[in-house]
Amino acid sequence: QLQLVESGGGLVQSGGSLRLSCAASGSSLDRYAVAWFRQAPGKEREGVSCATTRSDVTNYADSVKGRFTISRDNAKNTVYLQMNSLKPEDTAVYYCNAKSWDDYWGQGTQVTVSS
Q1: Hey, which of 6, 50, 52, 115 has its CA 20 to 30 A from 37?
Q2: What sign does the dihedral 56-57-63-65 (CA atoms) show?
Q3: What is the DSSP string of the chain?
Q4: Which of 113, 115, 109 is nearest to 38 (CA)?
Q5: Average of pLDDT values for 11-20?
Q6: Interior angle at CA 62, CA 59 and CA 65, nearest 5
Q7: For residues 15-43, b (16+ Cβ closer than 10 Å) or e, as one string?
Q8: What mean pLDDT do residues 11-40 have?
Q9: What are the φ and ψ backbone dihedral angles of 42, each rounded to 5 degrees?
Q10: How far is CA 67 from its chain centroid?
């Protein structure tokens, strides 16, 4: 069974950058479409970015377009989310998701952007 572990979150100043990683085990991640979601305090979980199995198609929420980039390294069985020009409103717990016949979720990693 696929397991996902996120890392790379932390505290950063507005305008800074972070790279989140989502390491998969138990199965090859290239068999799954992948996505990043986030959930801010008091708000519903929202989609941030997603990519098809070969990452030939990617999509981004309007709020992060031009600032975030999703990518994957199949050799490392890892998905990344490069986040640049971070804003305080990007503060949230970020979750990695992998989807095939089933949905798999990581435990989340906290990102806090100070103004």
Answers
A1: 115
A2: positive
A3: --EEEEE--EEEETT--EEEEEEEESS-GGGSEEEEEEE-TTS--EEEEEE-TTSSSEEE-TTTTTTEEEEEETTTTEEEEEE-S--GGG-EEEEEEEESSSEEE---EEEEEE-
A4: 109
A5: 98
A6: 65
A7: eeebebbbbbeeeebeebbbbbbbeeeee
A8: 96
A9: 75, 5
A10: 13
Tokens of 66: 């031009």
Residue of 52 and 112 predicted with greater confidence: 112
Q: Which residue has the tokens 């717990």?
A: 93
What integer pLDDT is reported at residue 55 of this predicted model?
74
User: Could you tell me if residue 107 is left (phi over 0), alpha (psi between -120 and 50 degrees) or otherwise beta?
Assistant: alpha
CA 108/CA 44 separation, integer angstroms: 14
Which structure tokens are listed for 9? 């979150």
The amino acid that residue 113 corresponds to is V
DSSP lists the bridge partners of residue 103 as: 99
